[in-house]
Design a protein that fits this description.
Elements lengths: L1 E10 L4 H20 L3 E6 L5 E4 L4 E4 L3 E2 L2 E11 L2 H8 L10 E6 L9
Antiparallel strand pairs: 1-6, 1-7, 2-6, 3-4, 5-6
Length: about 110
Amino acid sequence: MKQFSLLVRVPLTYGSEQAQAVNPLWDKLIAEWKSKGAYVISFAFPGESYTVSGAEKAVKKEAVLSGNLKAVSNIVLQADKVETALDLAKQCPILRYGGTVEVREIPKSILVDK
């Protein structure tokens, strides 16, 4: 099995009300993924974000945005091929709220729990 990183992004307008509405859907989906053996680990990072940049190593309290989307969590799943991982990503409830899920294969050299 291969492992895939699902980087979850939400619109800047996404707030606590939407998060409360979507949390039960996430819980249900993660339980489903676990029962199928697809789930490896996930973690949210809803707090503040900092960047370090340039030769001067300047620190700024800011999020790196993709369009008007900010990264809020990462999920690691296992699947036999990228198409299967993409099908799993399509189940993410954040898509209903204007979010996106970026799917990337994790190199074998750094797999979680090899």
